[in-house]
Amino acid sequence: MSDLKITGLHKYYGSFHAVKGIDLEVPSGEFTVLVGPSGCGKSTLLRTIAGLEETSEGTVEIGNKDVTWARPRDRDIAMVFQNYALYPYMNVFENIAFGLRARKFADAEINKRVHNAADMLGIGPLLKRLPRELSGGQRQRVAIGRAIVRDARLFLFDEPLSNLDAQLRDDMRVEIKRLHQELGRTMIYVTHDQIEAMTLADRIVLLRDGRIEQLGSPLDLFERPANLFVASFLGSPKMNFVPATLDGNTAILSDGTKLTLAGKRNGKAKQAVILGIRPQHIALSGKRVAIGHAQVKVTVELVQPTGSRVQVAFPLGGKSVVAELESRDVSKPGGKISIDIDMARAIVIDPQTEKVI
Ligand SMILES: Nc1ncnc2c1ncn2[C@@H]1O[C@H](COP(=O)(O)OP(=O)(O)OP(=O)(O)O)[C@@H](O)[C@H]1O
Ligand SMILES: [Mg+2]
Fold it and tell me: Could you read off the pLDDT of 122-132 as tens digits, one per residue?
């Protein structure tokens, strides 16, 4: 069963076309992440699902019920906004209980639900405090608590962690993932942070300019991007893009380097392409070259240690290419090293259409 089904959805703000025909079905219990650059329409899409924006065209179904014209409160949703506002003069308990009181739940039920949610979020001891007596991360948990006591069919999150510092973000990301596992609810989560998308999602919906560019599991999008945009959006450090001429199975770079692609290719003779190679798919050469790998000698230009790994930049085919190697592999710039490129995982892009071929 699907908890959410969006069909042919368009949204105009006056003459501005913000959402340009979205079809999306979210199975029950799935964690879906909407990700994409700023202004691509993530919040608009989420707000349309919530009923906070009017749909210009298309339908929204929640739990097999057409809610396109239903009020937000009749949609069986709970939402956490980027700028969650807590009531400053209510303590944590009352902030979490607010929606339940408004819906006239009995006191005993409110008590039970608030305590459950607070325990799950690790804010049980803070129920009597006022929002100003809490840290940013604790406040964030209260906002999430307010949503989860509702026990809605669909949970909508719009960049709920963007106000937190890096460490707290990491912690809260784990909390949200755990929460999803415990509640087993359908969640739709908006972020422009690709790491957040990769780590949280069962399925990623990558948006650009009001359209879906690609939809699939994080690994799907990472290993099999459909086009240049998807390939460059996901992954850190970014995928390397090197122009090449494709001749049969061989990609010839501008500096004459020849890289043999894995698998047969029957393209046009001598076709201009862009070769996409992830930094993680380059390693320092071992004693033997593995099948499907290409070995190249390069001169190290820049070394950036990240602790567990080291990012090494070197010129290749007229570009500065980055490889993510083991920390002990390279320590200084200037040296010559031999690298192995896993060509089975390289992608080939048509520069005209920007599609992976
Ligand atoms: N009320 C509005 N009136 C007119 N244009 C709007 C309105 N709300 C959003 N837009 C425009 O619609 C587009 C999509 O906005 P939206 O807020 O959905 O982007 P977003 O993907 O959430 O971006 P961000 O990551 O910055 O939050 C933007 O170009 C924005 O300027
Ligand atoms: Mg937004």
Answer: 899 999 999 99
- CA 318, 320, 322 angle in degrees (round to 5)? 140
In one-letter notation, the amino acid at residue 191 is T
Same fold, 2-233 and 240-349: no
Q: List the domain boundaries for the chain.
A: 2-233, 240-349
Q: Determine whether the shortest distance from the Cβ of 11 to ligand 1 is under 6 A.
A: no
By alpha-carbon position, which residue is closest to atom 22 of ligand 1? Answer: 43
For ligand 1, atom 30, name the residue with the nearest CA: 39
Of the ligands numbered here, which is closest to the C-alpha atom of 47? Answer: 1
* Burial of residue 14 (number of CB atoms within 10 Å: 0-12, 13-18, 19+): exposed
φ/ψ region of 155 (left if φ > 0, alpha if ψ in -120 to 50, else beta) reads beta
Does the domain spanning 2-233 belong to CATH 3.40.50.2300? no
Cβ(16) – ligand 1 distance below 6 Å: yes
C-alpha 82 to ligand 1 mean position (Å): 14
Mean pLDDT value across residues 19-25: 97
Q: CA–CA separation, 253 vs 12, rounded Å?
A: 45
CA 263 to centroid of ligand 1, rounded, Å:
43
Q: Scanning the structure block, which residue is given the tokens 């390693």?
A: 283
Q: What is the pLDDT of residues 266-305, one digit of tens each?
A: 666 788 999 999 999 999 998 777 788 899 999 999 999 9
Residues with CB under 5 A from ligand 2 (ion): 43
CATH annotation of 240-349: 2.40.50.140
pTM of the model: 0.90
Q: What are phi and psi of 75, to 5 degrees?
A: -105, 0
C-alpha 210 – ligand 1 centre gap (Å): 10
List all residues 6 or more positions away from 95 whose beta carbon is below 8 Å from its beta carbon. Answer: 86, 87, 131, 142, 145, 146
Kindly report the protein residue whose alpha carbon is nearest to atom 26 of ligand 1. Answer: 38
* Cα 59 to middle of ligand 1, angstroms: 20
Quick check: helix, strand or coil at residue 308?
A: coil
